[in-house]
Write a structure and sequence with these properties.
Belongs to the type-B carboxylesterase/lipase family. By secondary structure, the chain is mainly α. Helices cover 37% and strands 6% of the residues.
Length: 166
């Protein structure tokens, strides 16, 4: 049985103020929810919930690698294939502060008069999605504008690094 799913990308998947107000990684959390759905429903389609393999290519390979490391994904799959992407890719993780700066820039370009994370969230939620997409397009760079946020001090998505040999 083959299952494919969609998840939020770009601004809608990875916007963040790098705090608890807009923590980010919504695209990764969408993937976790899809994997939970697979566990709950795959048997109804003739699949085995104990034999789930996750596959990702390029940015999908990066996501797959993060699922291998994330406590949120534990037990949701049993094998993984990473093709042309891994969490070790230099383009796969944003340095601290970068995504917050991009989020603030999106807010400013969208006409938000916001200084705090809560004000940014409040303003952006009131805007039509099409406006946000148009604003996001102004940030085109050679790869990905809104990247995954890895905060090693929290368990929001990826907890502390673990010894894989254990």
């Amino acid at each position: 049985v083959f299952i494919s799913f969609n998840y939020r990308l770009g601004l809608f998947g990875f916007i963040s103020t790098e705090d608890d107000v807009i923590p980010g990684n919504y695209g990764m959390k969408d993937q976790v929810m899809a994997l939970r759905w697979v566990q709950e429903n795959i048997a109804k389609f003739g699949g085995d919930p104990g034999q789930v393999t996750v596959f990702g290519e390029s940015a999908g390979g990066v996501s797959t690698g993060y699922h291998l490391l994330s406590p949120m994904s534990k037990g949701l799959f049993h094998k993984a294939i990473l093709q042309s992407g891994s969490p070790l890719c230099t383009w796969a993780v944003a340095p601290p502060g970068l995504i917050r700066k991009r989020t603030e820039a999106v807010a400013t370009l969208s006409g938000c008069q916001a200084d705090t994370s809560s004000e940014i969230l409040d303003c952006l939620q009131k805007l039509p999605a099409t406006n946000l997409v148009k604003t996001q397009c102004k940030f085109f760079v050679s790869y990905i504008t809104f990247l995954k946020i890895i905060r090693f001090r929290t368990l929001k998505f990826l907890g502390h690094m673990i010894d894989i040999n254990k």
